[in-house]
From TrEMBL:
The keyword ATP-binding applies. Pathway: Cofactor biosynthesis; FMN biosynthesis; FMN from riboflavin (ATP route): step 1/1. It comes from Maudiozyma humilis. This is Riboflavin kinase. GO terms for cellular component: mitochondrion. Residues 25-177 form the Riboflavin kinase domain. Belongs to the flavokinase family. Its EC number is 2.7.1.26. Catalyzes the phosphorylation of riboflavin (vitamin B2) to form flavin mononucleotide (FMN) coenzyme.
């Protein structure tokens, strides 16, 4: 499949080992809060210890797959966050079936240290390619890892990072629509 950037790895016509990797339901926790606010690209953060070892062992980089979200029934509450807006944990109460929020959705995500932000521990941050009306902190999500797009890079500007994530989104959408990948939606059903 024709990728455009020098650092992009060719993506095979269907997943190759160690993919696919499929997770159980994981908690959606609050990250540093930069995704939406600074980048305009909301991310769902997953505690790394909840994903299979095969996923934790992957090299730092940008990956794609499918995901499905599930609300849990728990009282909403607000948690303070250092230096950022408080986080409303609503456990997915406002997810909207008529908006397709519960369908299997394409996802592009980074596993790594976010060199641009100088993080010191490994994180998994998923950008779900779907337009949600509300946040859903505290809901659960299971996802598959079907392939690798590129290494994590350090950027000199936020705009360059945003630009590359937008390209990642286009690549993931294209691959996930191809016949070697669409049947794997069932893995997260
Ligand atoms: C598809 C995707 C690709 C990313 N690529 C990079 C990258 O190459 N370098 C980097 O420093 N961070 C990368 N990130 C991480 C973003 O910097 C991160 O999502 C953002 O800081 C928001 O994090 P927060 O919600 O924890 O604040 C990527 C994130 C996603 C979803």
């Amino acid at each position: 499949m024709g990728n455009t950037r020098p650092f992009d790895k060719p993506i095979p016509d269907s997943p190759e080992s160690p993919f696919p990797i499929v997770t159980d339901f994981c908690d959606i926790v609050s990250g540093f809060g930069r995704g939406s606010a600074e980048l305009g690209i909301p991310t769902a953060n997953i505690p790394i210890e909840q994903v299979p070892e095969a996923a934790r062992d992957l090299e730092q980089g940008v990956y794609f797959g499918y995901c499905r979200i599930e609300p849990i029934s728990k009282e909403e509450h607000t948690e303070p966050r250092d230096n950022h807006r408080d986080v409303e944990y609503n456990y997915g109460k406002y997810l909207d079936e008529s908006n397709g929020d519960f369908e299997v959705l394409p996802v592009v995500f980074s596993i790594g240290l976010n060199p641009f932000y100088h993080n010191t521990h490994k994180t998994i941050e998923l950008h779900i390619i779907h337009k949600f009306h509300r946040d859903f902190y505290g809901a659960r999500l299971r996802f598959s890892i079907l392939g690798y797009i590129r290494p994590e890079l350090d950027y000199t500007t936020k705009e360059a990072l945003i630009n590359d994530i937008n390209k990642d989104i286009i690549i993931a959408q294209r691959v996930l629509k191809s016949e070697g990948y669409t049947p794997l939606r069932a893995q997260v059903q």
